[in-house]
User: What shape does this take?
Amino acid sequence: MRPSRDVVLLITHSGDYFTIDRVADALSKRGAQPFRFDTDQFPIAIQLQAHLDNSGSYHRLKYGDVSISTEQVQAVWMRRIWQPQLGKELAPQFQQACIRESLTTLDGFWDSLRGAMWVDDLQRINAAENKLRQLRVAREVGLVIPRTLVTNDPEEVREFFFEVKEKMIAKLLTPLSSGMKGSTFFLYTRLVKEEDLLDAQTLRYCPMVFQEQIPKKLELRAVFVNGKLFVGALDASRYAAFTQDWRRAKSEDCVWQTHELPTDVVDCLNAFMARFGLVFGALDLIQTPSGEYVFLEVNPTGEWGMLERDLGYPISEAIANTLLSKSAILLDI
Assistant: This one.
């Protein structure tokens, strides 16, 4: 079985569901051929060949009984790149070398698809994932940001803690799985108490982000797709007494509501996304009790399934339309 010329490559992992299925279905309804690439299954269950000589190059990907060539791919949805799962039968001393070679091979495969429409380009994603750059750009385009300190100096943290009148939260610059154990600093976004500062010496192993705690009326997830915004809001009063991170709240306390952002905030978010040249992004903001909107961060490959599921937003259709469009909004960083 060979897919048609109109292949859209969906880069994800084998544990992904709902969003990947909704986008694949939307693409199929538009006459395209979605091809799911579970990156954690390479190289064990997926075969990849790259043939190069002085006359050109040829790349082929085979997954199960389906194979594609790069010439068939018109668009790529960059959902997730997962680390290869090599199995316990491979000796531990070879694991890291094989993972490194597999990821490098994938980098070459991505390069072979540079002529396709990407949502989003990997270089743009990597540039936008830097949280410090995000905050700088957000401030420059007119968004309000929290007072922020990033440091590995325990004394600086203690001074900042009292500067913000003991209303301080801590988080990491990069995502972290909930299974990690150790110091109290290595956790989800959380409120810092004075006794936590006794453990601040662990910062010498890992710099962290410290921010002034912003009073919350609503927490917002604004999903940007090629110039369109789909905004969901959570009533923070339902979980704020128990956690600073809505992802740790009970499901019954996370009831998504539709929300419309003011025009000036929308304009700033559009300018922010244009600065990074991103077609897609999941933006997090807070609305304070006084009505002010505060920017927190953008995840260039962030989650949105809960908004489509609970609010009926046609986000998967917007992504499919963008993948198949010939004139998506692509701006320079």
Q: What stands out?
A: The radius of gyration is 22 Å. The chain is about 25% helix and 25% strand. The first strand starts at residue 7 and ends at 12. Confidence is low (pLDDT under 50) at residues 176-186, 328-333.
